[in-house]
Write a structure and sequence with these properties.
4 strands, 8 helices, 9% strand, 207 residues
Length: 207
Amino acid sequence: MQPKVNYGRMLDEKLAELERSGEKPSLLLHACCAPCSSHTLTYIAERFRITLYFYNPNIAPEEEYKFRCEELKRLVREMGLDIEVLEGKYDPAPFYELAKGLEELPERGERCRKCIEHRLRISALKAKELGCDYFTTTLTISPHKDCTFINECGGRIAEEYGVPYLFSDFKKHDGYKHSIELSKQYNLYRQNYCGCVYSRMAREKEQ
C-alpha cells in the first residue's frame, strides 16, 4: 500500500517556495460556491494572481445556480479583492448525460466523481485558453468530498492539457472551520445540498 499523500503539505511547500522566490504566478481557481471560496482566497491570494471560474452546470435549478454565482461575486467585492470572476456557460445537459444510470448513488460515489472530473477538465481548458500558470479548485475544502480523488484527477488532467495543477487540501489548518466563520462574517448563503438535483433529493429524504 502506498503512503497517503499529504496534499496540504504540498500546498504549503509551494506557497513557501513562491514566497522565497517573490514570484506571483497566475492561477485559475475553479469555485463551487462563495463559502468554499472564502477561506481558500484568504489562504492563497497573496501568492497568486487569481481568476475565479464559476463553472458548475450540475447545480439545479437555474435560479440556485445564479444565486450562488452572485454570492461569489459579492464575496469578492466585500473582501476588497482585485479578482475577476468568470462565469462559465450554464448548460446542465453534459452533467445529466454523465449521470445516467448513477442517479441513485450517494455523494462521493461515481456520479460525484464524474461530475468533479468534468468540471476540472473544463477548468483546465479555460486555464489553457487564458494562459494561466496553474489551475485548481476550491472543492478540497469540503469534508464531503474525496480530497485524494480530486487531486489525483487534477494531476491526470494537468498532464493531458499541459497546465500544472496546484495540489491542495484546503481543509488543513482549520480551513473548513474558517470558511464557516467567514460565511457568518459576510452573511453568505450556505446551501444545504451539494448542487445537483440528486443531492437535493437525497437531502430532502434525510429531513
